[in-house]
């Protein structure tokens, strides 16, 4: 059933090529890919979904451009959107397959194979084949059913679709989720030992500025109200979830008389209307406006939901040495992407349901449901864009910080060109050594000639015994020599790769330093010299015949590299220019810290020790839109990263 997938690869590749050459627009591309997924049958859905992911990965390797960046985002967002239905489709196939499996198993139980008559057994076999083919056709018809009817009801409750808000323990989160340990985010005071005062200007007071900045940063962090705002918002979300579950479980008691059933139904309906009105008031209180949402939904293009750049903080921080600062972010980030995609799906379901709404809902409530949901999604998308941009800048800053720490602690340095030359040599040496191992493994064993009935002529060695048979002393020594070279090459390669501190970057090209620090320069030279000596011994083992040309070339290359390493290379850089850049950067950082401190200096600080775990934080006016989203955007803009 998955055989047609191969033809779709060329189809999607052609669409991507048309988009890159600007033959089709973003909207056309998204609509085409959505149709590609929604017109699938049950059997092909997962394979088509995997195809979207394959093309997303393919797009990340293409030359950077605006069209390629859009292609990466579109494929990723569409993949995440339809991936939410993957478990639903899989469960649907299992449910439809179960009756057929049961009928087939029941038939296998009653069929008899104990007849000794040939014709009876033949008839039983034919009947079994017909029955099996019948059930296969039934299952094939099931797999060929369209997937579209099943792309509306999202199953929740399975392990794959369960998020942090679906877990019982999330209803009463611990207070530490809403606290900020300022000391974690402030630079260590021990760094003052590494600060060297300059001869003049702002750098001459670097140590005092550093200590003052630590104090201001700590006071600013403690003065921010974000933890309390998030706590109140979490409490509101928890309350909405609990109210929703309570109202869903309300049912009319069928054992009551008809009049009381009608009265109870009216009471339940009144509770739902009251809860909906309270929800609208709370949404308006936190800064949402249904009129703004309706206007934005009319102005929004269909493609806007699928062009946002992808983000995954867990994958980002896995490429850098993240610590306690990032652990807090990862805890808050937990399941955010899943809930974002789920909210998009539910808004689509809500819009479909509101096209034929219940009469009890009323036109005003319908407008508010549409408007508030649209405005909330718009805020979420705006915040996701800000988070994507700021998290990537933070990723690059962390990468450069690691580089600078290595520079400060390093004593020996290698030029990047020389480092790349050494790594290229190591790759070539590894390939050549593996080739020589293949040559040695083609040697016959001595037992093959001793046990043979036909006499095979063997060339005799002269005064010096060479490699003749497998597992001979000379052969074993040569293999050990090659393995030793490979081990040293791997060791040096791992060391240099670690020193380069490379990190993947799709959107921007990272700045590559001209010099990289090496922890033990003497050990590096010693290992290269060892490789050189081993290659010379290997050439002698092969008696310097025509097969040793590669070894001769490698020996020349490693000799050249050792000479370059031994040369005293001066780092050609203008320290005056470096001082100017450092002074300018220091001044900019101090201005940013000062501006943020002025903003929060009038806010009362809430210390962690004085917080009460049972204290409930009430919602404030503009809690989400103004105090959280807009304020965070302003603070990130002030940081000027």
From TrEMBL:
This protein's record includes keyword Nucleotide-binding: yes
Transmembrane regions: none
Keywords from the named record: ATP-binding, Nucleotide-binding
GO CC annotation: nucleus; preribosome, large subunit precursor
Keyword Flavoprotein applies: no
GO terms, molecular function: ATP binding
GO biological process terms on file: ribosomal large subunit assembly; ribosomal large subunit export from nucleus
Full protein name: Uncharacterized protein
Organism this protein belongs to: Callosobruchus maculatus
